[in-house]
């Protein structure tokens, strides 16, 4: 500034800049503002020494307190695990029925089961556990391998046609593809099977189908066609169809068979999580 | 008109520091009323939390309590749940209409007598007068240089002020928990940090607003003076200097001379007692103004002076400008408290209060709400039937455990209702809900195969108290796979 100009009205010096006849007063900052500003500088200097602050070539200044976000996050995680450990241990030693009947353990198992279901099961069974074609609906009352707590726990542990040695396994023959039955026979047996749940197929001889069924299917599905939980054979008399209950779907199933796979979770999830999953899934629609 | 002076004289500053007021002591009818109001309102504020009220073993025993952790508010025999917060809304509506009515009858009665700012400032003024003396002493002391005596008096005043302020904050927190426990915990350092924070906040606001800001709160911070300007009318009785009687003002002696000379003489002797007692420092003789909080202390001051000089009291009084004009024209004044506006406000108060009292008296002590499962909307069962899942919440507002039978209507015969974890009696699940609480549980409604239903059927959930038959209901939908 060449010379200091004082504004007559306020007695304050101006910045010397002029825009269309308007000059800006050179008012100082408010004192409190200035002190806050100085305080932040003091704070920043202290911060640099106390907390991690300066990046170095391959490391950084650790600070006097040795604070680390990673360490505090880990500590929080551990604290959370420790808080859960007590109930978790209870769950490990309790039977499924005991868990089901103890409100505290049940609440824990349901919460853990819900989370584990979303992480591991939802990709196939859906987030609402309603499944889809080929992936069983866990909400309904129809269970291929049994719907008791123990059955469900076992199915989750070993899987179906999985890599586990104890895997649940069955093998429906490919009646059409392997030439065991001809197209007409398949149509007849499909007509018989659908008649069990009140449906029908045009041009199918139900009586002939019944005979074919008795010869080929009863060993697994049973003489009453109600299936078997031990063998994982579906109940053919109800209205729940894993691979579709319309004419084409049933004929396709008899012709080609289906071999759905569920992985074994025994080695992947810890026993407590599997217990929780069993409780959760059983709560959805389990029974017998 | 300070601002105008500064502009027109080309002054150096657009800002003038507030002038400190030194209101003088005054006694009289309105001062007595103000003391009574002060004692009653502050008495209620400081001692209400100590009143006990027996609600049984499971409920708090404090008459007035806002239980944040338990999410309930208690007011003697009334218990308000969060979902009933509309009673608070109703109370606020009632309060505002009450303010309108007060304003229509006698101006800013609220400001002058009831507002916490006025009441606490009045108390602070009393302390100030008690320790530092009346107006003249205080002015002298403030002008004098610092001395031991001045320092002691000032310190004593601020200590008493701070004690009152801490008490204000201390009483506030008592409304949010068991008062005796909080007091013990506060003094032993065991109270929750939030308790100290709130005591601190209210100590600060009381000390600064009543001790220092005073009338500036009314002038610059409070919206009510502005609102009341829009609510008042020519009939409202305001503290009024009766110019028809007072002017031309002159001292008693000048008045005698003027009278002898046959000139007009007003009753006002220009003693300025009315200005000196004013807590906001206005001159009422300039007429109705925003700075006037209508406390009426100038009325007491003027009446005292009028009595002394042997003139009629009432030179300043609750009156209207209209009556001043009428009297100057020689007509009798008219006062009309009952007029359409006040009748309307009174009717509104009666209606709102009546509706609130009615709903409070007849409100249900149980409730039910239902949330349909979002995923899945329905489950097809092996028999061809359909199952829907709901999350049902039952509310029991009575201080003892109750049992509710749950029923569903709106579906064809044959459906079943199952509440998880609850035994059914005669086909109906009977659900126990503990005292003063809610219970949430999953309810499954199943319609058997062979029943044809549309994609969505409206249904109703009912709960009925198995002991006394009190009921509540709500509605939802039953969904199926049916394509439309």
TrEMBL record, chain A:
Residue numbers binding heme c 1: 121, 124-125, 262
Keyword annotations of the record: Cell inner membrane, Cell membrane, Electron transport, Heme, Hydrogen ion transport, Ion transport, Iron, Membrane, Metal-binding, Oxidoreductase, Repeat, Respiratory chain, Transmembrane, Transmembrane helix, Transport
Q: Which domain of life is it from?
A: Bacteria
Organism whose genome encodes this protein? Pleomorphomonas carboxyditropha
Q: Pathway, according to UniProt?
A: Energy metabolism; oxidative phosphorylation
Family (UniProt)? Belongs to the CcoP / FixP family.
Database matches in SUPFAM superfamilies: Cytochrome c
Q: Name one GO biological process term.
A: oxidative phosphorylation
Q: Where are the transmembrane segments?
A: 32-54
One Gene Ontology term of the molecular function aspect: heme binding
Q: Which cofactor does it need?
A: heme c
Compartment annotation:
Cell inner membrane
- Subunit record text: Component of the cbb3-type cytochrome c oxidase at least composed of FixN, FixO, FixQ and FixP.
State whether keyword Cell membrane applies.
yes
List the InterPro entries: CcoP_N, CcoP_N_sf, Cyt_c-like_dom, Cyt_c-like_dom_sf, Cyt_C_IC, Cyt_c_oxidase_cbb3_su3, Cytochrome_c_Oxidase_Subunit
Tell me the protein's name.
Cbb3-type cytochrome c oxidase subunit
Pfam families on file: Cytochrome_CBB3, FixP_N
From TrEMBL, chain B:
Q: Where are the transmembrane segments?
A: 35-53, 85-106, 159-175, 195-213, 343-361
Pfam families in alphabetical order: Fer4_18, Fer4_5, FixG_C
Q: Would I find Transmembrane among this entry's keywords?
A: yes
Q: Name one GO molecular function term.
A: metal ion binding
User: Which residue intervals define the domain 4Fe-4S ferredoxin-type in the entry?
Assistant: 259-287
Superkingdom of source: Bacteria
Which key words tag this protein in UniProt?
4Fe-4S, Electron transport, Iron, Iron-sulfur, Membrane, Metal-binding, Transmembrane, Transmembrane helix, Transport
Database matches in InterPro entries = 4Fe4S_Fe-S-bd, 4Fe4S_Fe_S_CS, Cyt_c_oxidase_cbb3_FixG, Electron_Trans/Redox, FixG_C, Ig-like_fold
Family annotation (SUPFAM superfamilies)? 4Fe-4S ferredoxins
One GO cellular component assignment for this chain's record is: plasma membrane
Q: Which PANTHER family match?
A: FERREDOXIN-TYPE PROTEIN NAPH (PTHR30176:SF3)
Give the matching NCBIfam families. ccoG_rdxA_fixG
Protein name (record): Cytochrome c oxidase accessory protein CcoG
